[in-house]
Please model this.
Amino acid sequence: MGLNFNVPINGDKFVDKLKLKEQSEKLFNCHMEISGFYNDFAKSFGLTYAALKVLAIIYEIPDCSQKIIIQYTYLPKQTVNAIIKNLNKKGIIAPLTELDPDKRNKLIKLTKEGKTFVKNVITKAKEIEYKALDSLGEERRNLLISAVEQFKSNLKYNTKEDIK
Model:
């Protein structure tokens, strides 16, 4: 008697669980390697990957706050606070200014030197990303984006369903 790796998913639809496992591992490995690229890229500028993500948000959003950074990066508040303090010490971020009367929400601005530094870093990152995307061709780029968006939606939906 052979092993049955076909399992019901979503009612009557059967899938090969072994094949899904293999594909999931490939996807995970790709994700880790892409993260590794960004980590190495950030290190080449004396940054962490998390700091690179924070700086990208600050660069793209003119009136940026810690709350906005947390929303876009999914980093914990403590991590964002530590990154901002470190970037402030390095002279990349100006002292924070308060936005709210309760003084908890603060505006984050780049210093003049910080703007130059971050523009250089983000421009280089975008050039590399654009080359990689361009090499796929428009049709494959659109398929990739569509597939990743659908995967993200499915993860979000299934996570909500399976946690109940």
